[in-house]
Design a protein that fits this description.
4 domains; three-stranded antiparallel beta sheet; rod-shaped; about 55% helix; SH3 type barrels; five-stranded antiparallel beta sheet
Length: about 350
């Protein structure tokens, strides 16, 4: 008997059994045949189910890991829970796509279908699906962690940027305040500088000769050095020389072209200019010739002053002697308050009390 004929015979026996023909004298034999036929059908179905399941096992690389997945085509599913199994596989495919895109997989529907399959066909190899689902749950945690890290990073960047902007604003305010302070200080310094330099000219050469007269051939009194403050006391009209005074007590003549009207025009280094601007600066180096001449002149003046003083002292001594002589010839009187006087021309002339003793 061929397999097809045997299968038809088995179905026939099953039909007869279902119609209660087992009550006939042949019932016992027919019932036994139906049982054998049903067992064979179950084995054939289970074999086909196992074969289709094995064919549906596949390997996929997901998020850098190799996963074992079960995907049995809808027309190959041999199970009373066929609809739920097919729906479960479709949901898992959606989750797979979401994970591959780095998104959070929606696992709720898949979990619902897993429960349905477990209830509808406990023999179906659900561990493939549960393992896949567990992997997706782990990936969801990684995605959420990455999202939180990005959020924290963005918040940190935002805080840093906010702080940077605040610091920038504060720095700008401080810079503006400092600029205002510097401006005020410069204005005060400018006013102070103007008061210091007002009315002065300034030596604008490494040094120049201070002349005794407004002539190139005149005696050199000495050298006035760069930055020295001088006051012009006579510009001598159209002549090249001007008469100047230095430090209030030294006078002489210099070439006008060697002077600067503004201290900032002096050809000097910044440190030198700072020193010149700090006060009435001057540096004078007297020439040996003029020094000797000055000292000789001062000696003559001193001698003349000493001679005049001696003459004055002699005159004072003579006057005092005359007064004493005159006083000795007078009659002295003591006044009511103890004063001593004599009468001269009808007036009282008071003298030292010693004359009345």
């Amino acid at each position: 008997m061929s397999f097809q004929k045997f299968l038809l015979f088995s179905l026939f026996l099953t039909t007869i059994s279902a119609a209660n023909v087992a009550q006939s004298p042949f019932g016992s034999a027919i019932s036994t045949g139906a049982s054998v036929g049903g067992s064979i059908q179950d084995k054939m179905r289970d074999k086909k189910k196992s074969k289709n399941i094995e064919a549906g096992i596949i390997r996929r690389d997901v998020a850098g890991k190799s996963l074992t997945l079960l995907r049995v085509p809808a027309d190959k599913i041999v199970s009373p829970a066929k609809i739920d199994i097919n729906s479960l596989q479709q949901e898992l495919d959606k989750c797979l796509g979401q994970v591959q895109l780095g998104q959070t997989a929606d696992l709720n529907s898949a979990k619902t279908f897993i429960n349905a399959v477990q209830n509808g066909d406990p023999s179906w190899p659900l561990h493939y699906y549960t393992n896949e689902l567990s992997f997706y749950e782990g990936q969801n945690k990684l995605v959420e962690l990455a999202k939180q890290q990005r959020k924290d990073s963005l918040e940190l960047v935002a805080r840093k940027e906010e702080k940077r902007l605040a610091d920038s604003v504060q720095s700008a305010r401080l810079a503006a305040a400092e600029m205002a302070r510097i401006k005020q200080q410069l204005e005060r310094d400018s006013i102070a500088q103007a008061s210091i330099t007002a009315g002065y000219h300034f030596v604008n050469r490494p040094f120049l000769q201070l002349k005794e007269k407004a002539l190139a051939t005149s005696t050199d009194m000495g050298k006035l050095y760069l930055g020295t403050y001088v006051k012009i006391i006579d510009d001598l009209s159209s002549k090249d020389y001007v008469k100047v005074t230095v430090d209030g007590d030294l006078e002489g003549f210099v070439l006008k072209a060697d002077l600067a009207e503004n201290i900032n025009e002096v050809k000097a280094t910044s440190s030198e200019l700072s020193r010149f601007k700090s006060g009435h600066y001057y540096k004078f180096e007297e020439s040996p010739v003029y020094k000797a001449k000055r000292e000789a002149n001062e000696a003559r003046i001193a001698a003349a002053e000493a001679k005049a003083m001696e003459a004055e002292e002699r005159r004072e001594a003579a006057r005092e002697a005359q007064e004493r002589k005159s006083a000795s010839a007078q009659t002295y009187h003591t006044g009511p308050r103890g004063g001593c006087y004599y009468i001269s021309g009808g007036n009282k002339v008071y003298v030292d009390k010693s004359y009345c003793k």
